[in-house]
Amino acid sequence: MKNKNNTIEHKVISPEYGAAKSFDDPKEAVAELQRLYSQSVEFLRENFDRIMAGGEIAGHYRSFYPQIWIVTTSFAKIDTRLSFGHVSGPGEYFTTVTRPDLFHSYLEEQIALLMENHSVPVEISISDSVIPLHFAFPEGVHIEGSIQDRLDRPLRDVFDAPDLAATDDRIANGSIDYENGEPRPLAPFTAPRVDYSLHRLAHYTGTSPSHFQNFVMFTNYQFYMSEFVDFAKKALNDPKSGYVAFVEPGNCICKAGDDQSEMGKPLAKMPQMPTYHLKKADGSGITLVNIGVGPSNAKTITDHVAVLRPHTWLMLGHCAGLRNTQSLGDYVLAHGYLREDHVLDDDLPIWIPIPALAEVQIALEEAVEEITGYSGYELKRIMRTGTVATIDNRNWELRDQSGPVARLSQSRAIGLDMESATIAANGYRFRVPYGTLLCVSDKPLHGELKLPGMATDFYTTQVAQHLLIGIRALEKLSEMPSERLHSRKLRSFDETAFQ
Fold first, then answer.
1. CA-wise closest residue to 247 among 284, 270, 213
2. What are phi and psi of 52, to 5 degrees?
């Protein structure tokens, strides 16, 4: 059929989904999410494969994400110690869902808390949010050749493409204006936003999002990655460690008991942010990401890791020591941040304070004590706590120093880098517990720079110890119940129920 513009008009063709279903068992609810999601993506894949093989185009093929929906009619009496797992008051709440296979444990926990705190079932159904074809393919699928040449028309005429209007951070930023009676979000991210980040993570890190662990470290030096490989080899050989596998860029997997001779060998072409995962069976292992240098990289990776809802992320890197009493190799534990990175100014204004989180701070300080052997007052010999400044100009020393130095002094900053405040601020924005432990690598304000030989010795002696401190801190945090670790400090007045 042709319309008045003489173009072919196709009908929309979608799967037959069936009616919504109500559940009072979290596992059954997640199983239904998985069934609906599989039906949606398989419909798109099958029709795409058929058309690419020369099959007829009968219309516009469209599938939808499944959704979770609850209705409450009263204010619930909840455990006020909990920072998540409950809605703020009577009303309708929903969230769209992608990859229930990847998020099944998370979804089961969040749904179970809703049922427990509000004594209501959840409804699982199909949403009106379309699944872009690009997000329907399994990880690692590569489409050969030009799709448009084979279709002889734009791909968007036949399948839906990603819509940027559905992939923003308005929920996390708290910038949505709700109409009276309009359903509220249950989760901080929509399904399209999650899908977008899952694809970006695979691209940037060279590993599948499925390998990411619940405890994440970011660093800005490859030296740490080499030390992490050495630590992983020992951990996999220790049955008491709890670690079961190590994953490197390219999704190279070495399991406990496997030959380790190939571990640590770089790919011929490394990804932009090489990432390594020391895995535990329950996901409570450690992921280490080399983000490179700069606040833009720091924002990019944390924007995407956040959709995985990790329990903690830490920044472990190097900084400039700003006090004359500091020595190269000393540690800086951030209790506050001076944000001059600017990459988050539109999402999180700089007048918003980024608080220190007690659970993370204590774990880091205890880890420094355990690994270095210093404790109590003696710990002050090698570690200072205070404000870390993060800037976006790597060569700030080359400008007139009167302005920057005055601000650094007024802020009482003790260390300066290009990533830490960005990572902490994005942790605050996305409700992911965060922390920073840096190592002083130079003191530019005091004319103390590393000479070539000094640099080699510094990296050899300090990186291994610094990494062990970060690992030990995350292991301590992994022993905490998640409801204790996820601080109420990170929750706003009107929060989503899902962590």
1. 213
2. -65, -25
pTM for this predicted structure: 0.93
Looking at the domain assignment, is residue 63 inside a domain?
yes
297 and 398 assigned to the same domain: yes
Residue with tokens 């009676």: 181
37: domain CATH number is: 3.30.1730.10
Provide the domain limits for residue 162: 11-199
Residues 361 and 284 in one domain: yes
**86 burial class (0-12, 13-18, 19+ CB within 10 angstroms)?**
buried
Provide the residue type at 342 as one letter.
Answer: H
Give burial (CB, 10 Å; 0-12/13-18/19+) of 420: buried
Residue 341 and residue 280 share a domain? yes
Summarised one tens digit per residue, pLDDT across range 435-484 is 999 999 887 655 555 556 555 566 667 899 999 999 999 999 999 998 88
Lowest-confidence pick of 90-104, 315-329, 356-370, 425-439: 315-329
Domain membership flag for residue 3: no
Where is mean pLDDT largest: 32-36, 391-395, 495-499?
32-36
The beta-carbon contacts of 257-266 under 8 Å, at least 24 apart in sequence, are 260/233, 260/236, 263/229, 263/232, 263/233, 264/226, 264/229, 264/230
Co-location of 216 and 172 in the same domain: no
DSSP string, 200-217: HHHHHHSS-GGG--SEEE
Work out the average pLDDT over 95-113: 97
Mean predicted confidence (pLDDT) in 157-178: 86
Q: Which 3 state secondary structure label does DSSP give 13? A: strand
Domains in the chain, number:
2
